[in-house]
Every structure is written in structure tokens, then in C-alpha cells.
Amino acid sequence: MKEKTLAFHRKKIVYDKNQWDLLSSIRKRAVSVMEKIADFQPILYGSVARGDVHKASDIDFFIEHMPETYLLEMALDDIGIKERAIVQATPWHLVKGAITLFSGETITFPITESKRKEIEFYYFGGAIELDDLLADKRKPGVDKRLILIKPLEDGHMEEEITGRESEVAKILNVSIDIVRERIQVLSRRDKIGRTGVYLNRALMHDESFEQVLKEICDKDSNVRRRG
């Protein structure tokens, strides 16, 4: 069931022992992956960075710069790579590589030149680096309901962001443009639902990201324009 954006909303959530234990166990899994790919300077983003996790929370990482993909795959090999894919949300969005591990975590990274807002997207939702994760820090970010999650010592504060775009941009250290864009996108999604992605090409075992990207670019002018 998709989450709905909320009207004006401000609420303090206090974590009980079960919530702290769940957050700790999920973050331990995140650390084990981040340490394997530390040379690529990944960020952990979403609820695991903010702290407002639930049992089905995804553990998602993003690498900001285009990596040497074969080196990244080698770093993850002993964990076990389940699936590799090239994805693009719309013809105008960043083309990304995605690696899903057998343990469930996903690592995404640009395979074409990225724009500032495309990187800020991940920080809008809350993002944390390995050193801060090891120090047990949490970062503020906005969830899919358009609610700002601000970590507190005993839990977090939830606050509505609509009408506070400039303030939220400063809290998250992102541009006001990405805040406005995400409000527009997520509000529209509430009304019409989620639409499919433009590109989702799974890679075969013997294919490389670079090889498949070239093949796609040769056939698809939209992808070629971003490449």
C-alpha cells in the first residue's frame, strides 16, 4: 500500500527498545557492505540514515561518481551479487547502474554524467557516510509522505515541509530546487499513482555495464543524449 502525503503534520516519535534494536541490527548490515566498498565513498540513504526504520526497510547505497564498475563488482563479490541492471526513471533522468546483493542491499551509481539535482535527490531523503554511521549518527531527511524526519536523542520529530521549502533546503544542505521538485513529484504521485520506469535492463552474467550502455545508446537517442 502506497503511503499518502499528509496535511499539516508535526509529531514527536519516541523509540522503544525494540525500535533501537531494529535500527542497530539493520545498520550493522549496512556497515558490513559499506566497509567493502569504502574506497568508492558510498552514502547510505533513506530511513536507515534517518533512523525511522521498520522491519521491511530497504538498505540502499549511492556512489556519487562513476566508478570503475569491475572494481566495484570485485569488492562485492564475496558478499554475492544477485542482479545487475541499468536503470533510468524517465528519458530525462540520470542513467544509473544498480547492483542488488543476495543479502538484499542495493548499490546504485551514475554511468552517465550527473546533474546537481540528481545527486541532491539522495540527500533530500537523508544520507550518511560510513564514518558517521560508525559513530552511530543519524541525519535528517524527508520521507515519501513529504514529512521531514529530524533525529532526536530519544527518537525523531516529524514535520510537514510544504510551505517551508527554503528552511528545509538549509536543514538538508540541498538546493531549494530539489525540495520543490520532490514536493511536486510526490504530490503528483499521490493523485495518479506511481508510473513505470523508462529503462530497466538486466545484465547477463557475461555482460559489463559499459558494454550494455553502449548497445543501448546505439539504439536509444534518449539514453544517448544523457550518455
> Main beta sheet: strand number and arrangement?
7 strands, mixed
**Rg over alpha carbons:** 18 Å
Number of helices: 9
Strand percentage, roughly?
15-25%
Domain count: the total is 1
Which structural class best describes the helix and strand composition?
alpha+beta
Write a brief caption for the model:
α4 (116-124) crosses α7 (176-192) and α6 (165-172) packs across α7 (176-192).
Written description of the protein model:
This protein has one domain. The chain contains 9 helices and 11 strands. The chain has helices at residues 17-36, 47-50, 69-76, 116-124, 130-134, 165-172, 176-192, 209-219, 221-226; strands spanning 10-14, 42-45, 60-63, 81-88, 96-101, 106-110, 127-128, 141-142, 147-152, 155-160, 199-202. A hairpin with a 2-residue loop joins strand 9 (147-152) and strand 10. Helix 4 crosses helix 7 (176-192) and helix 6 (165-172) crosses helix 7. The two termini are 35 Å apart.
Helix and strand topology:
Layout: E1 10-14, H1 17-36, E2 42-45, H2 47-50, E3 60-63, H3 69-76, E4 81-88, E5 96-101, E6 106-110, H4 116-124, E7 127-128, H5 130-134, E8 141-142, E9 147-152, E10 155-160, H6 165-172, H7 176-192, E11 199-202, H8 209-219, H9 221-226
Helix pairs in contact: 4-7, 6-7
Main attributes of the structure:
globular; single chain; 4-stranded antiparallel β-sheet; 7-stranded mixed β-sheet; 227 residues; 11 strands; alpha+beta; 9 helices
